[in-house]
Write a structure and sequence with these properties.
The structure holds two protein chains of two kinds.
Chain A: E1 2-10, H1 15-28, E2 32-37, E3 47-55, E4 67-72, H2 75-81, E5 85-94, E6 108-112, H3 114-121, H4 127-139, H5 144-154, H6 163-170
Parallel strand pairs in A: 1-4, 4-5, 5-6
Antiparallel strand pairs in A: 1-3, 2-3
Chain B: E1 4-7, H1 8-18, E2 23-26, H2 34-42, E3 49-52, H3 56-68, E4 73-77, H4 79-95, E5 100-105, H5 121-126, E6 137-138, H6 143-160, E7 164-169, H7 170-174, E8 176-179, H8 190-196, H9 220-240, E9 244-248, E10 254-257, H10 260-275, E11 280-285, E12 287-289, H11 294-297, E13 305-310, H12 316-324, E14 330-334, H13 343-357
Parallel strand pairs in B: 2-3, 2-4, 4-5, 5-7, 6-7, 10-11, 10-13, 13-14
Antiparallel strand pairs in B: 1-8, 6-12, 9-11
Helix pairs in contact in B: 1-2, 1-6, 3-4, 10-13
Classes of the chains: A alpha/beta, B alpha/beta.
């Protein structure tokens, strides 16, 4: 079993963090994993994307030709990357910022009101964590328990006070 | 041992520290900036010293100085920065000073771009500076392999009293993979350095003569003798250091040759070709210098084409052609400018090469 995931949005939306948390949770479950970010002269508001592969066996190539799951946090990303989803694959879209819908009928579309729910939760910055929960709920690529474990290892020290809010955000779409 | 998810550059830096690097001299350049950043807050905790140099030329010469005094020094940069360090590397080879050098390479020539490249192959394997010299060059393909190589590079450097290079690329520097870190080595004490590196500049102390390390030899016969001495050492390296691995079916019609990042893409291309009913294998040089000639001498009679897959206009292919020695046609599959071909593109082009030769 191999799941090829591609995360896309704009810099500052927490795209790379989402990918890293999935990768860490998969590693915690004993799976093979690679995380490959796009890199360049990027900044807040620019484009950000990353590839995560989760597999039961050795991963040769950290780059992908097509994605089983595409996660898009803004509209330009949907338009740009919709074509890379494998037939029968899944696209998870942030409907708060995306009016368009995929123009293909051979892929499943999962709608997530990430920014909307984040505002309801009291902090719009948790939009990526709400999306993270929706990814876990709709794909099962990792378990919620593993995500909880990873959050506890990430939000430590000065950041420990943000743990309860993020744990709550991840559970919105559970 | 606990697995942790680490970014390539941070893992390279951590590996250097655990391998015993007590001194790091850096100057920023993408795509390896996380290395000086990591060293700036981590190296001091181990009792080591981090200095941000004013240039790559300064960094390499600081490492030269630290290593001359018996310290374990680490320097890293990316392609244009490595070009600036070549003078120092030539000097360190001449003076026989062990330093570990990492190139997280990118596309060139000139300042080029910041995406991955392998066009420093010739510079790394032929010696990019002046004079006759060699530097063992290791090419990792996974972050874990890079960690193990950087740690053991210190042993190789010390054993031969010679700089050792690890040639990675931007993709490896930026990606994250689960890794297991080796235990940290204890830094050598002053007494241990005097004992293990009797040539080092640690002060005359109770020695009869002071140590002198120098590159200048004005008398031609003295210089010739020194170069001959260096090449006896390089001959030993050629016998003792060669490392490679093979992947897939080595009795195939197609045999790829690729290192580092490209070898990972080729491994997937081999799977794609298998789905099309075409069998392929790969020789992955782990040391680029000394180059592994043996697997080419052992090529199967079934092999119809050897394909050098690389992120350059054809540099690795020179060693491949020399090793194949005309027995089988050799072809190139490449992309440059920082573009990494897809595994499908590599498979398509390999299939075309095979068909053209049929």
């Amino acid at each position: 079993m191999k799941t090829r995931m591609f995360f896309a949005g704009s810099g500052g939306q927490g795209i790379l963090l989402m990918g890293q948390l999935i990768a860490k949770a998969a590693m915690y479950e004993g799976k093979e994993v690679t995380f490959m970010p796009s890199y360049g002269p990027e900044m807040r508001g620019g484009t950000a994307n990353c590839t995560v592969i989760v597999s039961d066996s050795t991963i040769n190539c950290p780059l992908i030709n097509e994605a089983d799951v595409l996660i898009v946090m803004n509209q330009p990303s949907l338009i740009k990357f919709e074509g890379m989803v494998a037939a029968g694959g899944k696209v998870i879209i942030n409907t708060s910022l995306i009016e368009a819908r995929p123009g293909r009928d051979d892929i499943e579309c999962v709608e997530v009101d990430a920014n909307g729910k984040a505002v309801e939760l009291g902090n719009e910055k948790t939009a990526n964590m709400i999306m993270l929960g929706a990814i876990v709920a709709s794909t099962g690529v990792v378990g919620f328990d593993s995500i909880d474990h990873v959050l506890q290892t990430v939000f430590t020290g000065d950041k420990a006070r943000f743990l309860p809010l993020n744990e709550k955000a991840v559970r919105v779409y559970a | 041992m606990e697995k942790i998810l680490m970014k390539g550059n941070e893992a390279f830096a951590e590996a250097a520290m655990r391998g015993g690097a007590g001194y790091y001299f850096g100057y920023p350049i993408t795509p390896q900036n996380e290395i000086p950043e990591y060293m700036s807050h981590e190296l001091e905790k181990t009792g080591g010293a981090f200095i941000q140099a004013e240039s790559e030329l300064a960094a390499v010469n600081m490492a030269y100085g630290a290593a001359a005094a018996g310290g374990r020094a680490f320097i890293s940069s990316s392609s244009p920065g490595l070009a600036l360090m070549q003078e120092g590397i030539s000097f360190m080879c001449s003076v026989e000073v062990p330093v570990v050098i990492l190139n997280v390479s990118r596309g060139g020539p000139g300042v080029g771009g910041i995406q991955p490249g392998q066009a420093d192959y010739m510079q790394a394997t032929r010696g990019g500076g002046n004079g006759d010299y060699h530097v063992p060059v290791y090419a990792p393909s996974t972050i874990q392999e890079a960690i193990d190589m950087i740690c053991s590079a210190y042993d190789v450097a010390d054993r031969y009293r010679n700089p050792v290079m690890v040639l990675a690329d931007g993709m490896m520097g930026q990606m994250m993979e689960p890794v297991v870190l080796p235990p940290a080595r204890k830094a050598s004490t002053y007494e241990e350095i005097r004992r293990d590196k009797p040539w080092s500049l640690t002060g005359k102390g109770d020695r009869e003569e002071r140590n002198v390390l120098k590159s200048l030899r004005l008398q031609p016969d003295v210089l010739e003798e020194h170069v001959m001495h260096l090449f006896e050492k390089y001959d030993r390296m050629e016998k003792e250091l060669v490392k490679y691995e093979t992947f897939g079916n080595m009795d195939s019609e197609i045999i790829f040759v690729a290192f580092g990042t490209m070898s990972r893409l080729v491994a997937e291309s081999i799977e794609i070709l298998a789905e099309r009913g075409i069998s392929a294998g790969m020789i992955r040089p782990i040391t680029l210098w000394p180059f592994p000639v043996k697997p080419f001498e052992e090529l199967s009679p079934s092999t119809k084409v050897v394909i050098s897959a690389e992120l350059s206009m054809g540099q690795l292919i020179a060693d491949v052609k020399a090793s194949v020695n005309g027995r089988v046609p050799v072809r190139l599959i490449n992309r440059v400018g920082g573009i990494v071909p897809s595994s499908i593109e590599i498979a398509d082009r390999a299939q075309k090469h095979l068909e053209e030769l049929a």
